[in-house]
């Protein structure tokens, strides 16, 4: 006779009521990689169906917003950008910010928006938020193309922007941003699968959050005591590092200390998000 | 050793909260959380009523499934039958891993694909081609597999011309055919299929059943839920009969179906009145009306298209020497009059009388019929009319060796001499 453990091994799937905190089947997600790709394709392709400009809209959107912000915040409100060309300043931080707000916003609705599909078929649920995080990065790259064109112009013609070697940290900064957005999204979608109250706060919260993140102003214009509070926001160090690296040493502050804080914060939040998502995903369909 | 068992369902139960989710639920959640924190059992697992939808709920919890156990062997085609609300779909959802059981476990060996719906994940803005890949990967196929089957899928669904048109411009028939096309080309080791055959036209249903028996004959395992008993009968060797969340019967399909029919078909085949409260007027009062069916080949007392049956009435005549005849009208539920038959007109004395109508087998179609009875005096004056006196259902469970399981049309389905010869 085989031992009980050997007997359990011969089953491929064991459907039970509970499972471990971080029991995530990475191999299974890998097996479903084609589905992941399809979700990413769907996200990008369906956005610009029946438009003439197609994916160009991804690039035009931040230009329009950056122009409006330049007019309002720079010309009317006279918020300084510390030497960086305002349009470039806003283009850069808005590209990062729109990644966060869109990715976090959509992932925080993973369960409710996909209930119809999730109620009919099994696939590793984590594929959905993962696809959103990745398709967001692809869109962000398209938007960076515009940023780099404007940056090139200001580097060569006006000499108002001076990127430095820290620019090589961009992949790391984007990875942090993506993990932060996804971790926060996973937490919120898990919390709102049964009681939806939090959803109402989220919409309002994202708007407010933008003002405590250095999106429309450089951190250096705030007083030291306020700066400390703003640094506590994990996104602050990412935004400041980005501006420091691409716009010039006056436009942002590079802080190893606070980047370390953000990295730690993001890892912890991402793990908590995963654990919560993992706990909820098996049963949310009964209460969504 | 039970080595070829590929699905093992062990003590599966599923509890649902009923009613709205809102402030009322949070106190339960807090109590449950508190119990779990102290290492105790969920206090609400002990409560909950049987899932009978017709009764008023007495608890905030209902058991959709209770202690379900069964095994499926490799290559077996298992049918799951039962009334609406018996727990069939919940069972399928659990096996498909859409939701998880409250208690118990299900062990599965092999790759599973479940079809609880066709066209899951279809996006209206995407083209037919894009949706084939989207739907296929959602159902667990890889891109490579879809590439290999792509032409077959397009062929099967017959939408070649529109393959690069967004599916929102498709007719509903094209949409369903494309969705089916993807589903039909799944090649899992275990296939779980819900009532998906209910959509699509007869020709398409035939195609799909054909595809499924193909799958079954290739050593793959199928679990098939359907209201179409004909399809279950021809596809599945064994079946499970679910009733109120439990397995009421499990065994060879034929036996299970007969058990199901004799327990679940709600016919009003017998009505009785005592002499005091007899139903009628001062001329005629009814004592009883009933349908007595001959036993079918399997010994079950159900009326199918092959069985003959009697309709018997007993009544009291209160007026001496009146000339009476009975006129019986048979309607389908859609109100079509199938026939009207009449007895001879006879002068009856006062007292009890009986009348019997013999309906031969191979006359009625599978449908629900109602009987209306009239008492006529002097072949011209209606003295008592009893509408919808009896209701009964004629079933179509055995059609013989045909590959078609759709609805046979017509108010009647007589067996007539209809020859076909080579000349």
Shape field of chain A: globular
Helix-strand makeup class of chain B: alpha+beta
The profile of the biggest β sheet of chain A is: none
Note the beta-strand portion of chain A.
Answer: under 5%
CATH C-level label of the largest domain in chain B? Alpha Beta
Between the first and last Cα atoms of chain A, what is the distance in angstroms? 45 Å
**Count the strands of chain A?**
1
Q: What is the count of β-strands of chain B?
A: 20
Mean pLDDT of chain A: 88
Q: Which CATH architecture of the largest domain in chain B?
A: 3-Layer(aba) Sandwich
Q: Largest beta sheet of chain B: what is the strand line-up?
A: 6-7-8-4-9-10
* Low-pLDDT residue intervals, each spanning 5 or more residues of chain A: 1-6
Q: Please indicate the count of domains of chain A.
A: 1
| Separation, N- and C-terminal Cα atoms of chain B | 60 Å
Q: What percent of the residues of chain B sit in helical stretches (DSSP H or I)?
A: 10-25%
Description of the structure:
With about 290 residues, chain A is mainly alpha-helical. Chain A has one domain (about 25-285). Helices cover about 65% and strands about 0% of the residues of chain A. Chain A has 13 helices and one strand. Chain A has helices spanning about 5-10, 25-30, 35-45, 55-75, 85-105, 110-115, 115-120, 125-160, 170-190, 195-210, 225-230, 235-245, 255-280, and one strand spanning about 15. Chain A is globular, with a radius of gyration of 21 Å. Chain A starts with a helix and ends in an 8-residue tail after the last helix. Chain B is an alpha+beta fold and about 425 residues long. Chain B has two domains: about 5-110 and about 190-265, Rossmann fold, CATH 3.40.50.300; about 270-395, Distorted Sandwich (Coagulation Factor XIII, Chain A, domain 1). Chain B contains eight helices and 20 strands. Chain B has helices spanning about 25-35, 90-95, 130-140, 145-155, 170-185, 200-215, 230-235, 255-265; strands at about 5-15, 50, 60-75, 75-80, 105-110, 110-115, 190-195, 220-225, 240-245, 245-250, 270, 280, 285-295, 310-315, 320-330, 335-340, 345-350, 350-360, 365-375, 380-395. In chain B, the strands form four sheets. In chain B, strands 6-7-8-4-9-10 form a six-stranded mixed sheet, sandwiched between helices. Chain B is globular, with a radius of gyration of 27 Å. The interface of A and B includes residues 41, 50, 119 and 123 of A. Strand 1 (about 15) of chain A pairs antiparallel with strand 5 of chain B.
């Amino acid at each position: 006779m085989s031992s009980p453990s050997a007997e359990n091994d011969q089953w491929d799937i064991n459907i039970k009521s509970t499972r471990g905190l971080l029991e995530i089947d990475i191999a299974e997600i890998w097996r479903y990689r084609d589905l992941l790709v399809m979700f990413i394709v769907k996200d990008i392709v369906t956005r610009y169906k029946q438009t003439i400009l197609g994916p160009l809209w991804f690039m035009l959107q931040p230009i329009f917003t950056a122009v409006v912000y330049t007019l309002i915040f720079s010309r009317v409100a006279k918020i300084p950008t510390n030497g960086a060309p305002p349009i470039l300043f806003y283009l850069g931080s808005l590209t990062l910010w729109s990644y966060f707000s869109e990715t976090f916003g959509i992932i925080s609705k993973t369960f409710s928006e996909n209930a119809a599909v999730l109620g009919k078929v099994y696939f590793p649920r984590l594929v959905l938020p993962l696809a959103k995080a990745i398709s967001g990065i692809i869109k962000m790259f398209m938007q960076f193309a515009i940023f780099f064109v404007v940056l090139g112009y200001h580097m060569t013609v006006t000499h108002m922007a001076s990127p430095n070697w820290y620019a090589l940290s961009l992949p790391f900064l984007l990875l942090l941003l993506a993990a932060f957005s996804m971790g926060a999204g996973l937490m919120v979608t898990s919390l709102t699968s049964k009681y939806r109250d939090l959803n109402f706060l989220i919409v309002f919260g994202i708007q407010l959050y933008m003002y405590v993140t250095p999106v429309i102003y450089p951190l250096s214009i705030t007083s030291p005591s306020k700066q400390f509070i703003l640094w506590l926001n994990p996104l602050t160090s990412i935004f400041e590092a980005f501006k420091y690296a691409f716009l010039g040493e006056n436009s942002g502050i590079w802080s190893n200390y606070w980047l370390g804080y953000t990295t730690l914060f993001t890892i912890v939040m991402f793990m908590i998000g995963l654990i919560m998502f993992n706990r909820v995903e098996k049963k949310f369909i009964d209460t969504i | 050793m039970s080595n070829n068992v590929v699905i093992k369902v062990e003590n599966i139960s599923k509890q649902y909260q009923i009613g709205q989710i809102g402030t009322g639920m949070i106190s339960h959640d807090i109590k449950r959380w508190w119990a779990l924190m102290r290492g105790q059992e969920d206090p609400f697992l002990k409560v909950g009523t049987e899932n009978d939808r017709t009764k008023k709920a007495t608890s905030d919890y209902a058991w959709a499934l209770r202690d379900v156990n069964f095994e499926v062997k490799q290559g077996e085609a298992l049918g799951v039958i039962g009334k609406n609300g018996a727990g069939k779909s919940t069972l399928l959802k659990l096996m498909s891993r859409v939701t998880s059981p409250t208690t118990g476990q299900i062990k599965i060996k092999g790759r599973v694909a479940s079809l609880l719906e066709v066209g899951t994940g279809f996006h209206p803005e995407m083209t037919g081609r894009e949706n084939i890949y989207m739907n296929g990967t959602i159902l667990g196929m890889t891109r490579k597999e879809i590439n290999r089957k792509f032409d077959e899928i397009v062929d099967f669904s017959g939408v070649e011309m529109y393959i690069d048109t967004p599916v929102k411009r498709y007719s509903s028939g094209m949409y369903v055919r494309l969705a089916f096309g993807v589903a039909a080309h799944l090649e899992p080791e275990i296939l779980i299929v819900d009532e998906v055959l209910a959509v699509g036209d007869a020709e398409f249903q035939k195609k799909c059943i054909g595809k499924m028996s193909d799958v079954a004959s290739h050593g793959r395992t199928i679990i098939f839920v359907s209201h179409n008993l004909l399809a279950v009968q021809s596809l599945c060797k064994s079946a499970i009969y679910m009733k109120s969340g439990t397995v009421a019967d499990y065994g060879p399909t034929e036996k299970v179906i007969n058990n199901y029919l004799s327990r679940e078909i709600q016919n009003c085949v017998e009505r009785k009145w005592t002499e005091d409260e007899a139903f009628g007027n001062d001329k005629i009062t009814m004592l009883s009306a009933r349908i007595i069916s001959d036993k079918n080949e399997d010994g079950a007392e159900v009326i199918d298209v092959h069985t003959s049956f009697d309709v018997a009435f007993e009544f009291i005549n209160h007026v001496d020497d009146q000339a009476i005849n009975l006129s019986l009208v048979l309607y389908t539920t859609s109100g079509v009059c199938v026939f009207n038959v009449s007895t001879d007109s006879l002068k009856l004395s006062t007292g009890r009388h009986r009348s019997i109508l013999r309906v031969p087998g191979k006359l009625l179609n599978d449908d629900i019929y109602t009987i209306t009875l009239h008492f006529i005096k002097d072949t011209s004056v209606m003295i008592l009319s009893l509408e919808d006196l009896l209701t009964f259902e004629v079933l179509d469970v055995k059609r013989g060796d045909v590959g078609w399981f759709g609805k046979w049309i017509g108010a009647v389905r007589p067996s007539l001499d209809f020859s076909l010869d080579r000349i």
